[in-house]
Amino acid sequence: MIKCGECGYENMDGLDYCDGCGAKLAAAAGGTAAAPAENKSETTPPAPSADIDAKATPSLAADAPVDGQPTSEVPTGDLKKEGEAPAPGADASGAAAPSGAPATFKAKLSVVRGGRKGQEFPLEDGNNLVGRWDPETGSFPEVDLDADDPEAKISRKHALIRIDGGKITIEDIGSLNGTYVNRQPRLSPGSPAEIKSGDEVIIGKTFLKLVIEPIS
Asked: Is 0.70 surpassed by the pTM of this model?
């Protein structure tokens, strides 16, 4: 019989492993029991080497590219400006688009009565505000009739003259005393009326004449 050195179980001769616990038995019957086998449950696996860890564990650095893949860095360009659509009335470059063909004339208003007779006010392409200087905002209208209106019959924002290509219109913008063209009925606020060279425009008690000169 071979006695197991681990658990003391008596095994038949010729066995290599104990029938009781499975431990390695002595090589010869009746011989000295073999040294206790290692307890597999207590065996500690070897620690992985530093080389294996370095290869198996990817770098966690946020700015390091992996296998040529792009990083998640935010581009330094102005994305808002690059992606936004052009503003209404502007072309692809962002510049304001012309509303019509360029004017082939120069226009102006000339005072003929009720103010500084002969005083002229050149009109620009686009919008020309007619009124009086506003001390609260410091704004000056393109046609400033403050010196021609001692009785303050003209509103600070009285009318709007617009030159768009070859067309000139005037529109009352809610004045107190109204806007008149060629002594016709008072213009309805917000309703532009077309005016031509020689037409008379009455703003408060100031009479003006539209003068148009061709550009040579």
From this structure: no
